[in-house]
Write a structure and sequence with these properties.
Radius of gyration: 20 Å
Shape: globular
Number of strands: 4
Largest sheet: 2 strands, antiparallel
Distance between the termini: 31 Å
Strand content: under 5%
Strand order of the largest sheet: 1-2
């Protein structure tokens, strides 16, 4: 199997009558790609930033609205993630955490060790919770609150974290227990809840440095929207993988 990495510049490449069946694209930039006369049976595309794009055309039809509507149907409450006022944000966080509570209960009822199972190289359920700890620390603790060192040691950095200037020495190099992960997660969930309990309309318009690119300002509202987006997208990933784990367990 041939693997192409960051050093391989395939921008503008043209593939004619090429057999790409079974190919896997991870973290690839396919913006502006044109596929004509292609066979797409069984193709799976996961694009978390799909709604942020202009269009995604399949046979001339923009499918973004259909995908978003279906995800909102599958995950009740997801549509509230773009709430723009304090009360709406508080409601959005509450419904989100009720959704997570149901998923946590599902995991608790599954065989021991399930939280640490990885599906197809993706983060395990425990790692997903740890990443959400880091997302809260970055977008609320670092950006909005302005803490010099907001990061919990159990946070799970993403693959590009070091390129973003994150000091990886802040994080544990050992695997924490699931109970430790749950405790860290509960602490950060409470942190967001308490912040939202007191936030005002004026607060939402206040500008802060982007946690990874301080030269680009973000409002409190946009930071909260990132947190909500991260929460819903990673919940979707988690449920997808839990379904796969459950199927493999029979």
């Amino acid at each position: 199997m041939t693997t192409f990495g960051p050093a391989d510049d395939l921008r503008g490449a043209e593939f004619r009558d090429t057999d790409l069946s079974g190919a896997r694209f991870v973290g690839a930039d396919l913006s502006g790609a044109v596929l004509r006369g292609v066979q797409v049976e069984g193709v799976e595309i996961d694009a978390p930033w799909l709604p942020d794009g202009d269009t995604f055309l399949v046979n001339g039809v923009d499918v973004i609205p259909f995908v978003e509507a279906e995800l909102d149907r599958r995950f009740p409450g997801r549509s509230t993630r773009r709430a723009a006022d304090p009360d709406g944000l508080r409601d959005a966080w509450d419904v989100l955490q009720r959704t997570w509570d149901a998923t946590l209960a599902r995991v608790a009822a599954m065989p021991e060790g399930t939280p640490d199972v990885s599906v197809a190289g993706e983060w395990s359920f425990a790692q997903t919770l740890r990443h959400l700890v880091l997302a809260t620390d970055a977008w609320l603790g670092r950006s909005v609150v302005g803490l010099a060192q907001p990061f919990h040691p159990l946070g799970q950095p993403g693959p590009q974290a070091e390129d973003d200037g994150l000091d990886l020495s802040l994080f544990t190099t050992t695997t924490p227990t699931y109970d430790e992960v749950l405790a860290a997660r509960a602490d950060r969930v409470a942190l967001v809840r308490d912040f939202l309990a007191a936030v005002t309309t004026d607060d939402l318009a206040t500008q802060h440095p982007h946690p990874w690119a301080p030269e680009y300002p973000e409002t409190t509202l946009s930071c909260l929207h990132v947190i909500l987006e991260e929460e819903w997208e990673h919940h979707r990933f988690a449920v997808r993988d839990l379904d796969a784990i459950a199927a493999s367990q029979g």
